[in-house]
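Colleagues,

Please find the record for the two-part complex below.
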Amino acid sequence: MAKETIKFAFMFVALTLCQVVVFNHICLFSVAIPLVFIYFIVKLPVTLGISWVMTLSFVLGLTVDIMSNTQGMNALACTILAVTRLPVLHLYMPRHDAITNPEPSIRTLGPAIFMKYAVTLSAIYCTLFFTIEAFTFFNPMHMLLKIASSTLLTFIVIMAIDGFTTSRR
Amino acid sequence: MRNLLNFFLRYSAWFVFIFYVVLSCWLLFKKNPYQHHVYLTSANAVASGIYDVTSNITSYIGLRDINEDLQRRNAALESEVIMLRQQARRLNQTILQDSMRRLDSIGQYEFVIASVINNSVIRPYNYITIDKGSADGIGPEMGVMDQNGVVGVTNIVGTHHARIISLLNPNFRLSCKLRGNDAFGSLVWDGESPSEALLEELPKQVRFQQGDTIITSGYSAMFPEGIPVGTVLSSTRGEDDNFHTLRIKLLTDFTTLSTVKIISNRDIVEIKEVEADLPRVASGTTSTSKL
């Protein structure tokens, strides 16, 4: 248990740093921004209480907000993502008892289910984030393009991180 | 009582959820950037420490371009100095007998040099973090420029770091005018491209051409008059027929910003006091206090 806690604490710090130092400055074709730090929320064990998941997600979002001067945008989107996480997983994997390892990954869920799970969460997050952002400037076509391209980019990077860390073990 | 307790236990997740959503919405809808707390911005100790380290590494990347910019600006200034020196000599000869005192309008300003440690151009509201703070004489609402033109205005100031509201932020409006013309308008970013902005509320009778330079008007006490801002790209008629709206190409390259100058105005306290007595007057007309 302590080992798991340390692992997630390390992941929290590493993902936040990567997001604010590297990924926040990437903007492919001036539309696609990788929002990779949600990998932390994707990876939280499914057995963890929902209040804990929400708290950790909120703190994660707030940390990224503070570092990138976005005041509550990521915090709100992360909290909502934390709630939708389990329903999304059960959508693709109806039998709850089939989980042997509570941590979602390619190995524990199988590539097909994990990919569907990751792409859905990325899509939900990008939609939330850019909708909240659009309260300020409203340009529907540009927003849809941003959502679609950012979802794709976020998904690709998350799959890369997951494939890399899982194969190492 | 037991029922009430059970109710709270059973729906505790909902309460936690609502609490976090309300908290983040509260943060989100505090629109005015001057109300942000220093701990919740990139000017706090941890965030600025991290950005210090990364900027130490990445600041080397754009040096070639910056060097070229500086060389070009240097050459332009040098030729201007030579021209002005000749002009001054000629004028001095002609008005030698007059004992007219010349007004030194730039003398009231001082510059502090700072490095940019974090910067964004892709958000709807962009901010910049620099590595100088109140310990270096920086206060809120001071103008910021780089070697090419206007960058923004300081906003949240920590001891050794400060956050700047970038020109690429709709919360910041800058009073500007066309060079060689006293009609002024208001420059604001429309969120489309980090190299372009709009100059609004320019009176309709003003004549201009594509490529004309836009400079600061000096009406806001944050910037001295005449700092270059951009050049005219095109014009669109505003909704109101009495004003022009110009699309401006900004001279500052916000994507490779590295070193900036913060302008501190020694007379700002006095100007603030004078302006405080005129609460209803629009900011443009208060400039008479400076003339």
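Residues 40-168 of chain A form one domain.

Comments are welcome before we finalize the supplementary table.
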